[in-house]
Amino acid sequence: MTTDGGGWTVIQKREDDDVDFYRTWNEYKHGFGNASKNYWIGNDAIHALTKDQDQELRVDLKRFNGDTAYAEYSTFYIGNEADKYRLTVSGYNGTAGDSLVPHNGMRFSTKDQDNDIVSYSCANSHHGAWWYFACTHSNLNGKYAQSAVTSYKCPYWYRWTNGYKALQRTVMMIRRKRTSWKTTVLKADAYINLARYQILSVDVRQLPYIQVSPRIIPRRRNISVLTCNRMKSNVTKMHILQSLVFLVLFLNVGLVSADSNNLEKSILDGSTTSGGKVSNVLRDILNQESLVRFSMVQRIQNLVMDVIDSKNNSQMTKQKLKILTTELKDLETRDNGIETEVTILKQVLQVLNETEQMKQMKNRELDVRNKTRELSTYNDLYREQLNVVKNALRELKGSMYEGRFQKMENTFKNYSKSINETLDGLFEDHKVLNLQVLNVSSSLSDVINSDITSVFCDMTTDGGGWTAIQKRKDGSTEFYRTWEEYKQGFGDPKNNYWIGNDAIHALTKDQDQELRVDLQRFNGDTAYAEYSTFYIGNEPDKYQLTLSRYTGTAGDSLIYHNGSKFSTKDQDNDRDGGNCATSWLGAWWYKSCHYSNLNGQYAQSALIGDKYPIWYRWKKHEALKQTVMMIRYRI
Description:
Strand 16 and strand 17 form a beta hairpin. The chain has helices at residues 25-30, 43-50, 122-125, 158-161, 235-257, 260-268, 273-309, 314-395, 402-436, 438-444, 483-488, 501-508, 580-583, 616-619, and strands at 9-14, 32-34, 38-40, 55-62, 68-78, 87-94, 169-176, 185-187, 209-212, 215-216, 457-458, 466-472, 490-491, 497-498, 513-520, 526-536, 545-552, 626-633. 37% of the residues lie in helices and 16% in strands.
């Protein structure tokens, strides 16, 4: 209850080798050990505590030489047993370096259940249980060592020790997030009369205090009334006290201005759904700045109390005051930066709103076209019927029915006139809409540049309308190519090809496309995977991948790569220490390194290896015979 304000629940603890952590899936599920010394709370318990996604994680580490460090993550939760306790973690802050985010999205593995992404068992090779990938940047449940040995089987945190140095003590703790600082209140009131060298009264209850839900930093004891007789020994102290009061008042303005919800509402009032994404970025910036100011106010409050209690001499207090003043100037500079960010976000929001309006105009144009086509069909039908009636009138002219048919002819003429007037109005609306969507039409010409001469279209699979962006049928086309080749595209759409990263970005940048991946084994078996959201960034963004919401029969081997940048043999953008593209002879959105490798080296049979086109969640490391990636407009 003391670390960083307290309120932590310990989920893992290692202090010595009294408890063996090399255990089975069922033991890690239910938990084991002694909470006062060495224990694991249990995966079912961690899931129950974090399933609402409102927990933050802190990892405290200690080396055998006494050095300590920590890592905090603003988001931490794991899935249930059916999801293999999959890890979700983000928002690192601390002194130990980030050795956990590389495991983000991984499933838990133990010595009797292997859920990592390599052919062997990381749990067995590293003598532990963890969210291994291939294999690990941290291994806090590894085999305990009695000294600072170097071994990947021991508990280690790679980013802190720059290697596999065994740690003496580890603790993992969670608590509910502190989501906002809207309840922050600052008060300051000290009556100081330095002109007359007399202080009438100073009461610490009127000095700055901070109330932050749910914790309250308490007020301290009262200060007795100071008179002129004692003023000389306190003049310097009161000068410093006055300066500190004004510093707190300055920070008060900063904290009020950092109310993320109010500022977000003022910027995004009446915005579209797209604006919500902008607001999340802004909210993160403002919450971070609020935390900085909160820390600064705490330090000022402590200095105020030290001045009152005479814990420091005047020279030391002045020095601390000088340091705080310098940091406040830095805060002011950062505030100016935030104002600039707000301006940029407003501009982004305006562009998003304009894009939404263009889509609405396009939909309206389609509605007018459909209505025009429908009425035109009805008009042709009525004209045809009218001609039939006219012919009948000619034959019956002078007969007893002539009057009746004449009346019927007039009725049809009036109805036809009404339809023509309606069509004329619709055609006028159509002309207006054509002018309004001129910019939309002109922008569509940029979707596929002049280098793309043809594409493969699938008009049968699942209702048709698919545009193939990747296709592999045999080994006649080399896919181990450069960044520039993958940018422009290569191959034959009828056989083997890559449409080009610039083209994929142009087709998906409006974030209205879905993706389908069709796979075939050498024995003829087939499977597929569909994602309701799929798009990639532009070249400056390294064609970063975004996708979500899997369905299908092949298993999800692409979500692991979500958020990763594209890598080729001559441009390494992955998170691994080496170049995944050269290691696995392909080009892909590698992370560290892959669950799928559809642009890998083609094999002539069902060979086993990660360098071939594979889809791990379907047939693990088995080379596939055919692969097709297709996109279409999401309905």
